Amino acid sequence: MSLTLNRWRFYVTPERVLSVCFIVLLAYLVVVPLFMMVKETFIVHPLERFQIPGSKVNDFTLAHWYRFFISESAYTFFYRPLVNTLIISFGLSFLALLIGGAMAWLVVRTDMPLKETISNWAVVPYILPSWTLALAWISLFKNDRIGGEKGIVSALTGFEPPDWFAYGLFPITITLALHYFPFAFLLIGGALRNIDAQLEESASLVGAGRLAIIRRITIPLIVPSIMAAFLLSFARGLGTFGTPAFLGGPVREFVLSTSLYGNLIGQRPGLGYLAALVMIVIGMLVLYMDHRMVGARKSFVTVAGKGARLGLIELGRWRWALAGFILFFLFSVIVVPLVALAIDTVMLIPGVYSWENLTLHYWIGEASYSIGLGTGEAGILKNPQILSALKNTFSLAFVVAVVTCLMGILVGYAIVKRRGTFISKCLDQISFLPYLIPSIALGATLLAMFAVPRGPIPSLHGSFLLLVIVCSISALPYAVKAGISAMRQIGGELEEAALMAGAGWWTRMRKIIVPIQKSTYFAGMLLPFISVTRELSLVILLVTPTTQLATTISLLFTDRGWYPYTNGIVFILTVVVVGCTVLSRRVMGTSLAKGLGG
Amino acid sequence: MPDIVLDKVSKSFTKQTHAVEDLSLVIPDGSFTTLLGPSGCGKTTTLRMIAGLEQPTSGEIIIGDSVVFSGKTGAFVAPAKRDLGLVFQSYALWPHFTVAENITFGLEINSVGKKEINKRLDEIASALRLDSLLERYTSELSGGQQQRVAIARVLIMEPSVLLLDEPLSNLDATLRMEMRAELKRLHRETGATIIYVTHDQLEALTMSSHIALLKSGVLQQFSAPLEIYERPANRFAADFLGSPRINFVDATLDQDSLSWGDVMIQLPKSAKKDVGPRVSLGLRAEELGLSRTCGPGMVEGRVLTVLPTGADWYYQVRVADEVLTIRHNDEIPFNYEDIVYVEIRSKSLKIFDDAGSAIL
User: Fold this and answer.
1) Which residues have a Cβ under 8 Å from the Cβ of A32 and sit 6 or more positions away?
2) Which of A124, A375, A499, B149 is the most exposed place for a label (fewest CB within 10 A)?
3) Which tens digit of pLDDT belongs to each residue from B198-249?
4) B94 to chain A, closest Cα gap in Å
5) Which residues of chain A carry a pLDDT beneath 70?
6) Could you tell me the CATH superfamily of domain B4-239?
7) Residues of A with CB below 8 A from B95's CB?
């Protein structure tokens, strides 16, 4: 009896229990919702009963698939948004690679001055909410298409930007590229920095010229990082909602994410879920392509060489010119937009840029139907609705940061401890899955799963918990990646030494593992905190009036044309996320690059 | 084929310190010359200067008939034009190429024809036993295989000088022994001049025809391995070569005799006279003998530790207030705490003055 018990105790190790628990949990929260969503595309929803004659709710139907892919309205529902999405996603990824890659190369491989400053500033665009630039674009280049007010540019110069420039695919691609280029900068920069200088030296020893070395050695070596950066920007761009909503809406250009949203909150949930499905399929296709092109055999880690000084390429008199140009560029995509947003929050009548028009009404004014826009809303700092949304945002960000950090530690632990086993691989794969699901589509799957009660689980729709779940799942791949690398660094022996000393599992985690890697884990908390603070796409489908977040409420105000409020809220969020980043850097020495694994 | 001449070569990375200082060497054609020294002694920097990856601050480097670097005239010949091959410590194999691609890259860059490339690849692959690995990626190879690829990659260019930067340091002990023999065979077969960098004195002793011993960027001694071992130019050289480490004992110099405790040793006429009286005497483990009975010229000691290595017996013996390591294989082994008598059996005395240079 006691022998069996002992064997049993030997078998039931913490890492086994953790692995199994997490696999079950994640399967329930990620895999099952995917299937639920697919099911939703085949059934009749309450609102669709009248569109599909003679049907009852929950009947099986192919009508959604027919309407979405084949019917004469398929072009509006699907094909046009699909083409737009692909144009934007490819365009922004290429552009982001170009900008980020060039900057990374200049910073790592040349003698350009002010590298430190440039590196620090280059990640800021990613920290800002993705649609900050979209709002700023509107503030700057707005023309009279969306009524009354003028943009700053047209007010100052009298020049009216044409529609294609002010709205639609062009500005969406540009602003998203400017938001996502830090991925390329961090990933490619990291890869370039890690290239063993000897790999290039040995090529030059056999007579390869500088160009041949770049073409045959350097670029192939960083191809995995280039592909990773491309994939990341592509997938993020695919699932982003705010920017295309703000910039595409006025000219009625839709992408899959806005089409998904429109259909889902409209009366066509079946079509909305189909759009989400298409987005997920595209995301997986891109990853598959990446996998095929880079290939498992060629996927290598570049290992830093032994103290070999990497020869910096001399730019000569271009040094300062290039540094100045990059700083000017960063200034234009960081400071200019923020100033533009700030200016719009203190202009009583939008579009009139004069000293008499200066006001703090939109910040601290009382609710009024006659002053300024006459919105009947109190100023941002006095508005209970906005303040409660801000409070929700920060509680959510905090809770998610803690939850993902814990999950990162535990899942990383379980994966590394059981490395090589089927269970470990399974857990690794399943925790990576959310990475492939465009964020708005991830929201859609959870909506499909939890909008109605299922078995013992009540409907979670409109609950804070559902927001926590969706944000945690979305941040999970990064957290697990950080957790795995933290555990690898510690190695098994430190823990085994504690085990030999008689420490139980809980003590080992608390006294050994977590303290050693606390800065890594802290960096792992920073990233989800920032992403949640500025998250819109992920939560847009799941918020209800009681769980309104700062980002979603700003969307609401944008819809009504109340830009000063939107801009003010975005401004607050920006200040908070930048402040957090700077603070954590000062206090803990953590950097975002670490969290991104770049 | 060329001698390699380094003439007063210096290299500094910062203003204050020299990585290499006033280094003058003539590396004979066809030799297996080892640059030996502790880490940070400038050996790798020297190698990289010969390769052309690093430019000296001053001095001149001549390979054969051509001045490949001159601080005076500003001459500089690009690495690829120096007819030499370099095997890096990390091997620096390109991870995105297969073994075959790694080996043939240099020929390809130099627009050698496909046929010729394949012919040479076949030759080199069979010589280095890489035939079955050609289609693999380098991450799929073992350490020893990776190293053979790194060597093949260099040899296929048929350089007249082969530079090796600590090529064995990443291998395990058994493999290292094997590769030592293999490199020696390679040297014999190709007839190329080999310049080899290592911090491992045993590697240097077993493989080289010449050793250049460096310390803090300054050449200490340049001779044949056994010459350095037998007649070290200074205390550092005596200490750095040999395992176990040489014993140093304090001795007193008086006219032409040396006394260590009660032991008196007559010095040859050639000894420097203007030093002393305090000197240190270097005694290698095998230059000391042990005995159970006292005889003339012996000092009493007590066994502290017995260290058998299988082939040899080593003892740590306390003599007065010094601890000596002694190899002794005759007779029945001694035991811990045994009283023994120590005798000096040196063929060549290693005596160093205060500044550490040899006085013989």
Assistant:
1) A449
2) A499
3) 999 999 999 999 999 999 999 999 999 999 999 999 999 999 999 899 999 9
4) 6
5) 1-11, 145-149, 294-311, 351, 372, 491, 588-598
6) P-loop containing nucleotide triphosphate hydrolases (3.40.50.300)
7) 221, 298, 300, 302
Q: Are B296 and B263 in contact (CB under 8 A)?
A: no
A199 CA to chain B: closest CA distance, Å? Answer: 5
Residue A11: per-residue pLDDT:
67
Cα–Cα distance measured from residue A310 to residue A313, given in angstroms and rounded to the nearest whole number: 9
Report the residue from B95, B96, B106 with minimal CB separation from A206: B106
Beta bridge partners of B198: B36
User: In one letter, which amino acid is A382?
Assistant: K
Q: Which amino acid is at A140?
A: L
Check if the beta carbon of residue B281 is closer than 8 Å to that of residue B248.
yes
Q: CATH assignment of B245-352, given 2.40.50.140, 3.40.50.150, 1.10.10.10, 2.40.128.110?
A: 2.40.50.140
- The torsion angles phi and psi of A159, rounded to 5 degrees, stand at -85, 130
Angle between helices A492-500 and A464-490 (to 10 degrees): 90
For residue A398, the model assigns a pLDDT of 93
Q: Which residues pair with B206 in a beta bridge?
A: none
Provide the number of CB pairs (under 8 Å) joining chain A to chain B: 72
**Start-end ranges of CATH 2.40.50.140 in chain B?**
245-352
Question: Residues A434-483: pLDDT tens digits?
Answer: 887 888 888 888 888 888 887 777 888 888 889 999 999 988 888 888 88
Nearest to A45 by CA among A61, A53, A57: A57
Helix (H, G, I), strand (E, B) or coil at B320: coil
Reduced to 3 states (helix: H, G, I; strand: E, B; else coil), residue A438 is: coil
- Residue A76 tokens read as 């509006």
Neighbouring residues of B41: CB distance < 8 A, sequence distance ≥ 6: B214, B215, B216, B217
* Whether pTM exceeds 0.80: no
- B157 contacts on A by Cβ (under 8 Å): 206
Q: Could you identify the residue written with the tokens 């066809």? A: B30
Indicate the DSSP class of residue B82: G
Chain B residues close to A293, C-beta within 8 Å: none
Question: Which chain B residues have a beta carbon less than 8 Å from that of A206?
Answer: 80, 105-106, 109-110, 157
Domains of chain A and CATH, by start: 88-272 (1.10.3720.10)
- Nearest CA to CA, how far is B150 from chain A (Å)? 10
